[in-house]
Write a sequence for this structure.
């Protein structure tokens, strides 16, 4: 595409591309934007090095003109978009990229890869955080996904309200809190469970989490309190019917005077399992597989479509797949109580008037890149974490239900030309 | 764990860890090993740099002793395992790592990340290749998964028999064939569909694939043949009821004399959709989302368990989660016809006798690492691609059915001590 467009001169046409999703994953009531910050970093670093160019040349993937264009590539256009932690709905204009066709089209894969992955994880994580209802929830899924996805997933989980991650590289790269745990192998390594507990407490003190289900849980708890004393930080149960086991563990810990010792459960938890434990004496959750695989929706299904060429709206027309041409923005309308009402997607630019915003309404996209340079003082990961917390509170109450349903608020397309 | 074990001296105990899966994803009849080669590379490169160590120190994640141990880390043990492209079943000993506790335990996450991801993709890909029944099938899913997973997914798809990938970085990194395609944006960019087709043909010649469904498919095909002539390489249809459309397209192409022009279909295809198109005049498939998300099984669910400490078998005992202690190998038994019969998982080492192998049986794991050094002349990606092709042919015919079912062959655990 790039080679052809450079050859025929259309490569330089001013274009607008938009990232959006036609629908939420089956039954989901909201989406959560994740990855915007990583996208900006990827755009800044989008260059072709000599090894890459050589391979393209050797294999005759592109011609000389294209190679030299790629050698000098850097994005010089503008980007607007939904900040991370923002909710989205079908048709929300999540990212709008303005530039020449050539400079904008080659960003498609990296933009969608990042946003489809990180948003899928963030949405699943947000549902789990809702289900955990204020209890600690720790991301422990690294080993069930690609080694680099794992780092991004830990970040997306934190964005969505997870307390910490077991992924140390995510901690280092994004400065998010980390938390460790010991595995069954640590207990099995030692001559006895007692020896393992003694060793862990000698190294980390009594305010640690002992894994008590390697052999027999009630014996494990008894040994843990004997070794650590009633000041033991926490016990972790990783298998079995964790609701029942948590109740038994609580009783046993209390009877041993370890009333402050917390109970952490893990082992194939998803948002439904977490919600079902709400009435049990569980103090924290460790979540792995279901988080890093998006809990049934491993990709957000976003697409990146050309919407304008030289100011003229364009859209595919052959099928029922809805695509709307023209550059868009979105206004989220709210009731006076602050509850979200609808997502108004509107056309921008000459001939279009912005919809009237009430005092509780707000335009969702923000400027992210201008002339290839990242806008200064963009919100931080912590800001965006807070943003999501607020946004979830603003949803109509049905919107937070875990069951399958319609999007929490409708998307209204306002596309009448007013001029 | 590491800090505690270094402190109490157990870190140096000789251990064996095994990667295996307790079950296949729901209804799957076989698993496909992917990622072994990437695991070996990751083990070779497993080092801690100063930035990483600094962060661990700053945040008091580990103590001084552990930091200095990590600084000098390199794996010096042995690894045996299933080569890539091999089939596996519940309990197959996919990777066996022998070394000190410390050096083997810290590899858990990277080993499982790689194998869980790559095997999930390879298994989905193998089912799609079976369904495509010899037709070309191209991996185009990069934008629906994490940007680095995308590269690994392209590799796993090629291992499993895909013809090519649209991921150029995978082509460069692993020397696998790449294939491109033009998007609707390329057509929309131009003043007309005809102008877009003319441009593409001027750049790439008539033996290219024109995307014909931007406006109206039959007009698109007519224009494509007018512009390219009957020597047009292929047309691609990306939306609608592709079976019906492919038949209409074939008739139209034939009537225009373009009898050699191929028809490529894409757009939310999975193994079932591919199979349902078997009777249609489709020459090639482009597969995206369902491939890179493992077609419903985005992770292979492998675990990494300690099985031996200083020659003594160990296993968790608290629940029904089956774990079998002791170092194991596996023999795949076959009938005289070459059809696989069963996976015999057997204990190795002192006191155990290997099961008798018939002329068609073979021990599945191979040596991969000795004393920290990768074994020489390991099979290549091409060898392993061929391995899978052969292995699939050896399955009982029910094993290749796409419908849900039991594992294609049973796993038999042979654990009687003979001495």
């Amino acid at each position: 595409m790039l080679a052809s467009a450079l050859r025929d001169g259309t490569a330089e046409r001013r274009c607008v591309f938009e990232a959006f999703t036609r629908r939420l994953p089956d039954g989901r009531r909201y989406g959560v934007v994740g990855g915007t910050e990583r996208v900006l970093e990827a755009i800044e670093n989008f260059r072709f090095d000599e090894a890459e160019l050589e391979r393209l040349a050797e294999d005759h993937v592109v011609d000389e003109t294209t190679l030299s264009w790629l050698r000098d590539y850097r994005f010089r256009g503008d980007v607007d978009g939904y900040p991370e932690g923002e909710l989205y709905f079908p048709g929300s204009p999540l990212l709008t990229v303005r530039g020449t066709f050539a400079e904008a089209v080659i960003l498609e894969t990296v933009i969608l890869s990042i946003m489809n992955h990180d948003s899928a994880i963030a949405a699943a994580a947000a549902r789990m955080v809702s289900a955990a209802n204020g209890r600690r929830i720790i991301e422990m899924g690294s080993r069930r996904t690609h080694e680099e996805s794992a780092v991004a997933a830990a970040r997306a989980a934190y964005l969505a309200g997870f307390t910490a991650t077991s992924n140390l590289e995510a901690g280092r790269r994004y400065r998010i809190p980390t938390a460790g745990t010991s595995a069954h192998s640590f207990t099995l390594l030692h001559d006895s469970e007692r020896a393992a507990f003694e060793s862990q407490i000698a190294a980390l003190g009594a305010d640690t989490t002992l894994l008590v289900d390697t052999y027999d849980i009630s014996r494990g708890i008894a040994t843990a309190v004997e070794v650590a004393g009633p000041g033991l930080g926490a016990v972790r149960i990783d298998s079995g019917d964790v609701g029942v086991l948590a109740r038994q563990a609580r009783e046993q810990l209390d009877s041993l005077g370890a009333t402050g010792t917390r109970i952490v459960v893990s082992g194939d938890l998803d948002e439904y399992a977490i919600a079902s434990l709400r009435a049990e004496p569980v103090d924290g959750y460790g979540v792995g597989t279901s988080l890093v695989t998006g809990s049934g929706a491993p990709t957000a299904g976003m697409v990146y479509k050309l919407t304008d060429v030289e100011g003229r709206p364009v859209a595919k027309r052959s099928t029922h797949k809805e695509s709307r041409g023209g550059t868009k923005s979105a206004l989220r309308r709210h009731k006076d109580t602050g509850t979200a009402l609808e997502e108004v997607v509107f056309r921008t630019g000459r001939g279009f008037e912005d919809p009237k915003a009430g005092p509780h309404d707000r335009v969702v996209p923000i400027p992210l890149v201008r002339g290839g340079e990242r806008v200064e003082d963009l919100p931080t990961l912590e800001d965006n974490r807070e943003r999501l917390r607020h946004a979830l509170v603003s949803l109509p109450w049905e919107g937070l239900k875990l069951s399958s349903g319609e999007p929490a608020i409708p998307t209204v397309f306002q596309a009448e030309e007013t001029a």
About this structure: Chain B touches chain A through 84 residues (CB under 8 Å).
